[in-house]
Write a structure and sequence with these properties.
Length: about 290
């Protein structure tokens, strides 16, 4: 019995000995662990250098500052655009000269007509009024109409009393000479107003021609330089648009002044016609009294 127990114990020890040896080997591996990899030193930082921010294709300083003042636009414009601008500038100056002269003259003749009408309706005799006008040398339109009618009146009575049968022809002659005088005086007031109408209607189209020509030259410059930057495009476009601006600058004052002056001359012509009708009625009454 004791021998069997000892044999069993010996066999069990022989079986467990490899297991214990394996367990001890695993313990050694877990304690040691894998060896850490060597740490390499960090690379040194690259030295800092200035960064070039200049855009590609547009080197710094390649496009100087653009001068868009009116004088610079005129001096740098194409020869055709310069001619257009010069014509429009002269038209504008001449238009303003006409506007100032006609405005002053129309105001002056209106004041003279008011003074003459006050003198005419003051009750003074026609012969005395005609003599005073001749001595003072008044040459305003209403005085000219009066003087022309009185001259024809006196010519009709140079041979003495007028026959009653000739009265209608005398009245007709007086009325005609006054109409002719009115037409002549109104024509003097309307002189050069046609130039204002021409400038007002045609100056924008002349400026537009300069604009079209300038834009064509700008497109040609863009195609030749292969550059569509604002510094290349802006000067030509500005010169072209400046021609249109000058056309409008000449046209707008001329058109407004023409309408104003033409209306003023028309009103004054109606005033002269009204005076001639009243004066013709007075002369007709006196002719009838002399024929009795």
């Amino acid at each position: 019995m004791e021998l069997s127990v000892l044999a069993f114990a010996h066999e069990a020890a022989a079986i467990l000995k490899p297991v214990v040896h394996a367990i001890s080997s695993l313990g050694d591996l877990s304690v040691a662990g894998p060896s850490a990899a060597p740490i390499e030193p960090a690379p040194s930082a690259a030295p800092l250098s200035p960064i070039d921010v200049t855009p590609t294709g547009s080197p710094a300083g390649s496009h100087p500052a653009v001068n868009l003042s009116p004088i610079a636009l005129f001096m740098n414009a194409d020869i055709v655009v310069k001619i257009v601008m010069g014509v429009l500038l002269l038209a504008s100056f001449w238009s303003w000269a006409i506007i100032i002269e006609k405005t002053g003259r129309l105001s002056r003749v209106k004041r003279q007509a008011e003074r003459f009408e006050q003198l005419f309706w003051s009750g003074k005799s026609l012969d005395d009024l005609h003599s005073s006008l001749g001595s003072r040398g008044d040459s305003h339109p209403m005085a000219q109409v009066f003087t022309t009618a009185m001259r024809e009146w006196r010519r009709s009575f140079e041979g003495g009393t007028v026959n009653a049968g000739l009265l209608p022809s005398v009245k007709d002659r007086i009325h005609k000479v006054m109409n002719v005088s009115i037409g002549r005086e109104v024509g003097r007031l309307e002189r050069q107003l046609g130039f204002l109408a021409t400038v007002g209607s045609n100056a924008p189209f002349i400026g537009l021609f300069g604009t079209v020509w300038g834009i064509m030259n700008s497109f040609s410059s863009i195609a030749a330089s292969h550059d569509t930057s604002l510094a290349v495009v802006a000067p030509g476009i500005a010169e072209a648009l400046f021609a249109t601006a000058m056309g409008l600058l000449a046209a707008i004052p001329a058109s407004v002044a023409y309408n104003h002056l033409a209306d003023g001359v028309g009103r004054f012509a109606s005033r002269l016609e009204g005076f001639s009708d009243e004066f013709a009625a007075i002369l007709s009454r006196q002719l009838d009294e002399r024929a009795r």
